Amino acid sequence: MKRISLAFLWHMHQPYYYDPATGRSAMPWVRLHATRGYFDQIVLLDDYPSIRQTFNYVPSLLKQIEEYARGSVTDVFLDYGMKPAADLTPDDRRFILWNFFMVNWETMINPHPRYKELLQARGATVTESTMPDAARRFSERDIRDLQVWFNLAWFGHQACRRYPELAEMKKRGANFSEADKARIREIQDRIIRTIIPLHRDAEARGQIELTTTPFYHPIMPLLCDTDIARRAMPDVPLPSRFRHPADVEAQLAAAASYHERLFGRRPSGLWPSEGSVCPEIVPLVARQGFKWMASDEEVLFRSIRSRDRYTVLYRPYLVEHAGATVGMVFRDRQLSDLIGFTYAFNDPKSAVADFLMKLSEIARVARGDDAIVSVILDGENPWQSYPDGGEGFLRRLYEELEKGTFAESVRIGDYLAAHPPTERITRLHSGSWIDSNFGVWIGEEEDNAAWNLLGRARTALQQREASGGGKDLSAAREEIYAAEGSDWFWWYGDRFSSDNDAMFDQLFRTHLRNAYTAMGEAPPKSLDTPIAHMGRVSVAQEPRAFLKPIIDGRETSYYEWVDAGRYRATRSDSTMFRSEAFIREIRYGFDEESFFLRIDPLDKEAIGGGEEYKVHVHFTAPREVRLSFALTRGNSHRPRCELSLRENGRRVGKKCACGELAMDRIIELSVPFRDLGFKKREDAGFYVQVKTGTIEVERHPHGGFIAFTVPDEDFEIAHWTAL
Q: Helix (H, G, I), strand (E, B), or coil: what is residue 492?
């Protein structure tokens, strides 16, 4: 078997949370990811000196890391977390109870009995009306333990190894002191101060290559010209035209200069924000000295009008436009998504075996003797879903790669120097790594409203620059660049949502307000009005009444599921995007006796995959129960649903047939509460998983679970509304 080159690119990015007007960061994620993904990823490589990788750090993230390292910035969560528990006001306590469970419950709360106990004491679901009762259940000791656990749970495997006292605290679990809190902060600060030097040293010894992204992570094609969006989406409604290619070049130049200051050399590689490219950026990228950039496989396929992946994907290219050329590689979407979304829910041995099997097939079939397989994904977000922070998977993978059987890990720049691209792309597709278009960031009502506000502020700056007057406009310019970042637009519209949509909205408008103030102008009143939710249809509905569905695999009547709870699986609460999916929507509800579930596939023909694919409905509370069935369809037999009791994720006792199940155009399931072992008024939660063999291919929600309360006879009275 011929050898191939395996190129990992870990993309590290967080929104620019810092507000210079207040001197604080709105969210803690830069600080907390530093103690997990940023530290773990680079330190783990010390044990595997032959592994070569590429790390991409967005400059606005590095800027925030620098600010934390200098001690010149704090964040709201840190302020609340470090305040002595005895001094907390009722409002302080409410903030902590709202926000300090904002982690992956399955991997970062459930394994720790005390943290899980605190969540149960607060309740899985909480509202403004129930929060006062929840707060009264928390003693000063409870609150202090929660302050500790929110920070402690974020420390990853290498941090706990480097600082054994963290592991000791996790083992102790409770009765933490103010001194424990202070020590946790001290360790956080120490780790943050090492992030940049560790990466600089790893590059100096030749183990990693460091690359960059436009400074504030903007979508470069849309800054060049928002009308470019129509190339992939001809009918998309667009905002007033925004066309500022000079801003693209400014953000590229700032990124390269800042990178050189931190790491001692200019970057040769570029990860365009969200893999977003178009022909117009090629000369801009080339002028700033970048030798190569990367994007998604679908961008390649649409550029060259071929989908023969074994022939075209695993090789480098030269892209040309307006007399300029830049090298390009394109990510293998399947392999990248498996690490990002799937392998977390499988044991490391099976996951690595699956990855290597797929890699060996590429080595066997790919054209040429110098094939490169590019695995490009978020380098920080996936590890929250791995039970051990990804250590088991990565160690096993690196150990296998060090054997050098058929794959050699490489830095992308090294590979391109040894194998200069010869094949050319003259018509680069305009799109991103999400759906090969820019629909996440433009076209919906909220997105377009944000672009219009940005455009007005940018025009005001342009007019100020043209009028002269000697006023220093650098601060205003910087705020405009920050507002051009993709992150704000990610959360606008109906595609993605989080509990912090309002905060992202506020940050975007704050950057624009700051820009006007720095210009010496009063910010327009339009910036006082939230953009988020201005036209959004709710993506989630709580059960509103008892259901009486006919379990036949068909929508017998519109009304049989109209009062069900709804979870839109195609909408994501994640900062990551998955390219392929089976489930479109999950509906759920109950009567007094039974739980009902409906699953709508994206493709109604997808049901019928035989025994190869199985659906598992996992109940995580009030006790662990799993319902399992194969994706089959037809009248030859009645599909069978099996129930198994679980404990710490493992089956206890025998499986048994349970409930009613039917699959045709949709999947419908009914199971009595008595069979689940659930009692009235108990808080329950579930998630849905699709697997093939031991490999998980899909999970909804991606993290956490859908919560509901087992109804009693008063449910309909309590939820009655006049329509």
A: coil
Q: Which of 583, 389, 381, 384 is nearest to 490 (CA)?
A: 381
**Tell me, what DSSP letter sits at residue 305?**
T
The full 3-state SS of 184-215, as one line of letters, equals HHHHHHHHHHHHHHHHHHHHHCCCEEEEECCC
Determine the Cα–Cα distance for residues 118 and 299; give it in Å rounded to an integer: 47
Q: Which residues share a beta bridge with 642? A: 628, 657
Residue whose token pair is 């899980």: 116
Packing angle of the helix pair 474-483, 245-263 (nearest 10 deg): 100
Q: State residue 162 phi and psi, 5-degree precision.
A: -70, -35
Q: Which region among 139-148, 273-282, 431-440, 640-649 has the lowest average model confidence (pLDDT)? A: 640-649
In one letter, which amino acid is 327?
Answer: G
Domain final position from 528, 557, 584: 528
* Bond preceding residue 15 cis, omega within 30 of 0: no
Is there a single domain that holds both residue 669 and residue 565? yes
**For residue 537, is pLDDT > 60?**
no
Q: For residue 600, what are the β-bridge partners? A: 585
- Give the three-state DSSP class for 401: helix
Q: What is the pLDDT of residues 310-355, one digit of tens each?
A: 999 999 999 999 999 999 999 999 999 999 999 999 999 999 999 9
Cα–Cα dist 539/162, whole Å: 43
Are 415 and 452 contained in the same domain? no
Conformational region of residue 610, where left means phi above 0, alpha means psi within -120 to 50, and beta covers everything else: left
- What tokens appear for 468 in the block? 């002269």
For 7-58, how does the pLDDT look when each residue is reduced to its tens digit (9 = 90+)?
Answer: 999 999 999 998 877 788 999 999 999 999 999 999 999 999 999 999 999 9
618: β partners: 626, 687
* 141-154: average pLDDT: 98
Q: Do residues 404 and 485 both lie within one domain?
A: no
With a CB cutoff of 8 Å and minimum separation 6, the contacts of 342 are 351, 695, 696, 697
Give me the phi and psi of 366, to 5 degrees please.
Answer: -60, 140
Is the distance from CB of 367 to CB of 311 less than 8 angstroms?
Answer: yes
Instruction: For residues 54 and 203, give the distance between their C-alpha atoms in angstroms, rounded to a whole number.
Output: 9
| Total number of domains constituting the chain | 3
For residues 591 and 547, the answer to whether their CB atoms sit within 8 Å is yes
Three-state SS string over 254-282 comes to: HHHHHHHHHHCCCCCEECCHHHCECCCHH
C-alpha–C-alpha distance, residues 600 and 328, integer Å: 39
- C-beta separation of 505 from 531 below 8 A: yes
- The Cβ of residue 100 has, within 10 Å, a number of other Cβ atoms equal to 23
CA atoms of 122 and 115, how far apart (whole Å)? 11
CATH assignment at residue 5: 3.20.110.20
The size of the chain, in residues, is 723
Among candidates 384, 673, 690, 394, which has minimal Cα distance to 546?
Answer: 673
Contact criterion met (CB below 8 Å) for 718 and 695: no
Token pair, residue 206, equals 């030749």
Q: What sign has the CA pseudo-torsion 206, 158, 577, 346?
A: positive
Containing 525, the helix (H) or strand (E) segment is none
∠ CA 532-534-535, rounded to 5°: 115
Return the CA Rg of the chain: 26
Residues 545 and 677 in one domain: yes
Q: How many CB atoms lie within 10 A of CB 328?
A: 25
Beta strands in 354-494 (DSSP E): 372-378, 407-409, 424-425
Range of the domain at 2: 1-70+195-442
